[in-house]
Amino acid sequence: RRVELFRRLQAAPQTLGQMQIASGISRRALRRHLRKLEARGFVTCRQGVYAVADNTGAFGHELARLAGEG
């Protein structure tokens, strides 16, 4: 699920509501996934809008590559 969310954010920054509608994931689960991605430095949240972090490092670049393969 996190890779799916990461893919969505690669396409464009989104709010929690936009991601919930597009993914069908419950709000509670979505928040949990996004918090984990944010804690690991893969995404950022500014004023309620989630986006892929600029400084994801080697692992983040690999995640981005894998997300692009789906």
Question: Overview of this structure, please?
Answer:
Helix 1 crosses helix 4 (57-69). Strand 2 and strand 3 (49-52) form a beta hairpin. The two termini are 12 Å apart. Helix content is 63%, strand content 14%. It is of the alpha+beta class and 70 residues long. The chain has a 3-stranded antiparallel sheet. The chain has helices at residues 2-11, 16-23, 27-39, 57-69, and strands at 14-15, 43-46, 49-52. The protein has 4 helices and 3 strands.
On the 0 to 100 scale, the average pLDDT is 87
Helical fraction equals: 55-70%
User: What is the N-to-C succession of helices and strands?
Assistant: HEHHEEH
Low-confidence stretches: none
Most strands sheet: 3 strands, antiparallel
Category from helices, strands and their pairing:
alpha+beta
Report the strand count.
Answer: 3
Specify Rg, calculated over alpha carbons. 11 Å
Features:
single chain, 3-stranded antiparallel β-sheet
SSE order and pairing:
Blueprint: H1 2-11, E1 14-15, H2 16-23, H3 27-39, E2 43-46, E3 49-52, H4 57-69
Antiparallel strand pairs: 1-3, 2-3
Helix pairs in contact: 1-4
Quickly describe the structure.
The protein is of the alpha+beta class. The protein contains four helices and three strands.
